[in-house]
Each structure stands twice: as structure tokens, then as C-alpha cells.
Fold this sequence. Notes:
The complex is a heterodimer of chains A (417) and B (320). By secondary structure, chain A is of the alpha/beta class. Chain A contains eleven helices and 18 strands.
Amino acid sequence: MNHVLVVDLGYGDAGKGTVVDWLCATRPVHTVIRFNGGAQAAHNVVLRDGRHHTFAQFGAGTFRPGVRTHLSRHVVVDPLALAAEADHLAAVGVPDALDRLTVDGEALLATPYHRAANRARELARGADRHGSCGLGVGEAVAYGLAHPDSAPRVADCRTPAVLRRRLAALRDRLTAELGPLDAPPVDDCLPAFTAFADRVAIVDRSHLAGVLRAGTCVFEGAQGVLLDEWHGFHPYTTWSTTTFANAEGLLAEAGLAGTAERLGVLRITTTRHGPGPLVTEDPTLPLADVHNATNPWQGRFRFGHFDAVAHRYALAAAGGVDGLALTHLDLAHRGLRICRRYDSMDRLEPGPPGDLDRQAALTTRLLAARPGYDDGPPADWPAAVEEALGTPVTLTSHSPTAEGKQVRKGTLLTPFV
Amino acid sequence: MGSGMWSTDVYDAADRYRRATGKSAFAYSDSGARKVHPALDPRDAMRESRDSAEHPQSTAITVLFDVTGSMRNVPRTLQAKLPQLLGLLLRQGYARDPQIMFGAIGDATCDRVPLQVGQFESDNRMDDDLGRIVLEGGGGGQMTESYELAMYFMARHTVTDCWEKRGRRGYLFIIGDELAYPQVDRRQVSRLIGDDLREDVPLAQIVDEVTRRWDTYYLLPAGSSYAGSTKVLDFWRDLLGQNAVVLDDLDAVCETIALTVGLGEQAVDLDQGIADLKKAGSKATGTVSKALARLGRGARDQVATLPAPSTPPTRGVTRL
């Protein structure tokens, strides 16, 4: 039983969803486990028959019959978005997504109050936006750290009196800080949260050990290592640990530390949604992303050449991988090149977690850095990426569907036949 | 990465959840759970049915059902039906302040979840416990399940105010289709419940113990593997006398249990109870009256001494 951990080694959007879907399509996967982030994840999966879903809280394996989703305690759970997402899944032929879901009761809730506060802050920053998704995930994490004993959590949805008290305290604290919030009254929120608890299996942290022994599991990361709360380029980061750390921690709790295959996902164009460093950005690239439109909270979707410097940094920050999944190879002939060094430096070294001043200084240098290109577009992308990152490329993706994936090397990912 | 694809409208979400149909009542089990839910774990547990200001005269009622493979679809049907039990008892006035506990029985010799016990609840929180029950399937294929282990728990790990304060027994319904093991295995007790026993407890002794504080019924439902098996029915008749009842129609399980409690509480007689059910629009009256025909003739023996009698009563339940 080889569990697989899937993490994005860029700024997100590399194709974790399509890789997770392929894993679930090619072997019997019991559960897809989310271990960071929240409803702001947007992992696109396209089926051969044209059906498409943007997975936010359900695992990207949900199109595959019987594959379950577990939201661990490291996920910020948004029951409102979850309901809408379940409805869309039903509309595209997956009526039982909620029945295949378990949620850890300790997970923090994202609520309309967090969202309203998130937007209020982001608007106040004006042109200096951080690229937040406007869903209140970071706000929920911050509040949870400040008020660990009274922050609303998933299990509270089972006891309306407790939830009401905690939502009211949350609203009052955020209102005191930011002024009136554009959010519904507490009593209007309660029915949705309690209906969520009635409908979804809420479990405790011991549940996961059983799941991990019941069959192969896929840990589906959210966002990307270059947005990590400690290793990302401050302040353009997410309130979430985007490395393997949470997943490895959950495995360790189940007595399975270090037993899973670590897979890093990269696309051959380094992209970024929203502000922050993107050293290899090239507005002349003839690329567009069908699933990532400009939105009012993150702004423009930006394309750049393959930034091996930044991805090497991500690999080091994440502690290395067993293999790489390289996606979007169908873009190989669009003039994309590989950047192996910047004009000012050719290596980025990860620092100790928690040193945000150091990370902010790094951001300043990166915003001024210029990419260096030593050669033209590579003829053999997988080989070139392998060489640039010193890591084997085990899976390649040539189209959005599971059928467009090819195992390049490595036995652990070989599909069951 | 993302942008929040999905609507977060709080009013829509409540509607969506309410509309979301097809919820398997056994969501915990269907989500792949294969171990006892912490809320239902019998280990080191004591289950209490207590009076409160709201419920000053609590009547403890326990429904334990076999969730092994031989029961086929019975557990799922029960799960869909049992939430109506509380409402039925209250509407008909058959029991004062009913407090209901649900639980499940497997096979401790081979199942992973041989015993699951909820809490005594006076409101629909009992439904949550139902939803947390793991359906093992499984079972030993021996025509035997660990009913004796469940009875051991009920005998030694429950406290009820109806008994402690008023000397009135609670009601225990075991729904199943197989035999019990001949003794309570001390190793299973140690592993699953946590008690340290010096020796196994013979089945007859544990039946005596449990029936002292619990008016105990065995319901053998149609639709299970051994329904109608005289071997199973005879086995339980031998232990519980007329309290071993065949249930022809599973849809009538709540009515049968409710009326049994009503008869025991002398809140109603059988004819009146059947009339009540008819009036309430129940189609189950034939089934219920057939199932309970033997019970309707005699009132439950009242226990008047406090606390528990020092000499165990004769095996089984003495009736007129």
C-alpha cells in the first residue's frame, strides 16, 4: 500500500487536480486527503467526455466512483462553499459526493465574518494587495491562532448553542477591529452550518489512521510551496503550510512516517495568479489559461518561463521529492525556455521557518531580479527539467484528462492493470 | 489555487443541504469507517439514563441491533425507521420521559466492531448515534453473534434512574437473527470493554443479570438470514420466554417497540394500542398485534424492592 503525497512546487495551478484524478483513475484509491488550505483551492479536472469540475474542498479523485475525501484538521472548512460544490458535482453526474466525505471536527471553519474581514482588509490595502482569494481562509487561520479556544470549528456545527456563541464572539471581535462587516446575522448563518453537520460525517483525528490502513490514499496539497507561509516570498504568501509537512505529520500520527511516495507537480510554464515575485514573467508568451481568469481579488493570471531557480528553492524548502509530475507538455512548442540563474544570484537558500524579515528581504531581491536564459527552448522537456532540478520526472501530462498522462519512469506510480 | 469558484451564500447553503437527498443514514460507515466511532466505544464506558428537570421521570429504553452480514438490509431499514421511535412514544404517551440509546452488535470473534453503544438521549441527538454505527457486514457465519457481550455491557455498564430511584426496569430490545455464544469471554471483555474478569461469565448468568434491571426482548425480523429458523427462536424463547418475538414486517419495528413499552408501562392494553396505531394511520397493526399477542395478556411484573434484589430471580422473565 503506497500512499502518495502530491504537492505543487510553484505558485499553485500546476495541475495537482489532474494528477490526483489520474492516480485515482489508474489504481484503487480509498481516500483523497486534504491537508492544507481551504475552499480557495481550485483544482481542475476534465473528463474525456468533456465533464469538468473545479475541486475546491472535495478531493480531485471524486469523479472516480467510490473514492472518498477526508478533510483533515489542517484544512479550513467552508460548509457554505461545500454545499454549492456538492450541487455542481451532482449536476455533472456525481450525486454522492457528500456521502463520501469525512471532516475532522477540529478543523477551523471559514465563515461569512472571516470573508467580510478578509475583503475589508484587502480593499484597505488598495494597490498593495497580497493576492488573497477573498474567501477568508487566512482570516480564519489568524483568528484560530489568536483565539484557539473560541474559534468556530467543524464540530461546533453539531451544537448550535456553542456555534452561535462562537460566531457572535467572532463577529464582535472583527467588527471592533474593522468596523461594520458586510455579513449576515448570526442567526441566519446557523441553519446552514447545522444542516452541514446533519449531512456530513464529522469524525475525530483518530479516524485517519483507519483510513490509511484501509487502502491506498492520496494526499492532495493545495496552493504551492512558493506560497508557503514560512518559505514563500513574504508578504505574497498564504496562511498555510504548503510543503509536505502537514501530510507527513498526519502519516506519523498513524505510525506511517516516511512511508509515502512524494510527488512534486510542476508545469513547463511557471505561473502566478496575483501579485508577488515572478522573475521569469513574460507577457509576450502566447498563453492563456482557460480555468484561471482575472478575478477582482487576485487580479491577472501571469505566465513566465520555467523558473528552475525558484523550483529548486521549492524542492529544498519541501525537503525533496521522489519524483516530479511535469504538466502542460502540450505547450512545449510555444517558445518556453528554462531559467537556471538570475542576473543577481543563481541559488535561493531556504531559511528557518518563522523568519519573515528574511523572507521579505528575499522578496525585495526577487522583485528586482532578472532572469538569465542560457539556451533556447528545450527539445526534450522532461530530460531538461530532470537535469535542471536534479530530480527524476516520473509522470508527464500532455492534455487535461487522465488519458493524457504517461508514466515516464519509476515503479511506484505504475498503474494497476 | 483558486478564486472561490463556489457560492458562499449562507441562505442558499442551508437549502442545498436540506435538498441534498440520498444521504445514507449510515454516513459514518459509508464513508469507509471500519472502527468504532469514539462516541460509541464501549471501552471504559458507563451509559447513564438520568432524570433531569426537563425529564423528571426518565424511562430508559435501549435498542441494540445486529449489524452483521446475515442481517442483510435489516440494519439500513432499522436505521431509517428508528428515528421515529421517540416521536411515537411521546405522541402516544406510552412512556414517561423516554430516554433512548441505540447500539449495534457484531461478532467479537471475527468482527472489527463487535459492540457499539450510543448514549441515552431524550431528543434527536440519538439519531446522531445511529448515524455513527459502523455496519460490519461480516459476522462469523456460525449462526452465532456476540449478543452475550452486549448483554454484559447492559448488565454492568449502565446506570438508570428509573431503576435506582423508582425500582422500575428499563426496556432492552435486541434485534437479531442468530444465537448468542455460550459464555461471555473474559478476553473479549478485557479487550473491548476494559473490565478485568477472573473467568468467563456463562450466558444464563448474564441473562439473569441483565433482566434484573432491564425488561429484555429479542426481536427476530423477517428479511434476515435465519428469520423463521425455529432453532434461533427456540434458543431465545428458552432464555427470554415470550419476550422472544418474531417481527414479520420490519417497517413495524417502531410500532412494535413503542407498544411493547406501552404495555410494560401499563399505559395501554394491546387492543387499545392497536386501535391507537390504526388511528395514527399505521399500516402495521396486523404485524404488531401478531408479534405482541403473547405479551398483551399479562402486565409486566413490577419490581417494588429497592435497590436490586440480593437473590437473582429465576432465569428469564417471570410473567403471569
